[in-house]
Specification:
single chain, 498 residues, 22 strands, globular
Amino acid sequence: MGHSAPELKDKSLFIEKSYINGEWVGAQSGETFEVHDPATGKLIGTCPELNTSDVTKAIEAATAAFPTFRNTLGRERARMLRRWYQLMMDNADDLAKLITWENGKPLADAKGEVNYAASFFEWFSEEAPRMYGDTIPASVPGNRVITMKQPVGVCGLITPWNFPAAMITRKIGPALAAGCTVVAKSPAETPFTANALAELAHRAGIPKGVVNIVTAHKNTPEVGELITTHPEVRKVSFTGSTNVGRLLMKQASSTIKKVSWELGGNAPFIVFDDVEDLEVAVNGAIASKFRSSGQTCVCANRIYVQKGVYDEFAKRFAEKVKGFKLGAGFEEGITHGPVIHERAVNKVHEHVQDAISKGAKLAIGGEKASALGPNFYNPTVLTGMTKEMLLASEETFGPVAGLFPFETEKDVVDLANSAEVGLAGYFFSGNVRRIFRVAEAMEVGMVGVNTGLISDVASPFGGVKQSGFGREGSKYGIDEFTTIKSVTFGGMGEPLQA
């Protein structure tokens, strides 16, 4: 297939518009922005550069659709989500091609993402009919108290480019299951996957106005501000950087919105010398660190290896990285693709240069892979890392693994917890008491024990500290889109009528 554009089986899934009130529309201004393939730099297509008046129309459509949609039966919403899930599975190959084309990840990874993304529709289709309330014994004689869960209202959803399908379905799935309507702002780098999902929503019979997908590039800040301040938007869910999260949270305070944030991570990955099988730990670290070329928020960022196994681990780890095949995601046998843009390459390189200047040793890589294109960076392994290096405190978001030696359990947990963020953390150990101690001591929202891959629709996803709050997926994921109403009945304690 090489560098040419992919052939979609269903060409109508490639759409250069925004989806508002059940219709494909352009910007009122007629403005568009370009989207380029990160592997080749070639133009993929254009999308509408919407401004606040365009997006206001989307919010109004969602507001108008809400009163009817909130009153559909949970079972009916379940069927809509189930149909949408099935359409994703039926079109999985095309969706994967769109993801690889605009995001750059290898096609095999993109196929995995489509399955993961679709699973949120399947999961929340099963949660939709199960929004149970309670009957609560009152402490006032004659009173009876019940609770009901109700949809929060119109939801503004803002998602990043690293998982063009899964970040959106993980938010839309529970929102629709709860009976909310949504305005989703898709990422400017990867808008076409979201558009294909909107087309499938249309085919699934989801009523107009319930799902709106808006696009913008240079207008993103003003669109974000509109979504966080518009009085009809009752809830905002955002996945992205901690800095943008801070800004959106400040904006959302003006109308006291319900919010949930999935922000940056800086995942520690710890290998203790009582690990049962070092090879499993090496493979776990490779999977966690280099998936999507290190561009996931739960990627291992700081790899801590205990002195007893450090040298052997470092050797085997670098050996595995030597076997990677870098290239455009559609090419045969490619294991790792480009990073998203040249700014990302430069940040990665800066982290590598900084570590080397402060005494780290380069085991493999350390250079831009410019022969392949401006967005390629050779997978890199650094040893002898210390906490003074940029990589220790900043999220790299690229294909660089830094290995830090450590002495004791206490030392490494202190180092692991020294970050201002706490999304995911991983460790490998064969000692069951240590496993509980360390899992309980780590200041993160998600812990992987003896595994480097923790994403699962059944497991709640989210962080602590400056990684945000709120949980996605799992039985808890729908709670973010509901409010609890209590209803108290007075004068109910009459004796039976004779």
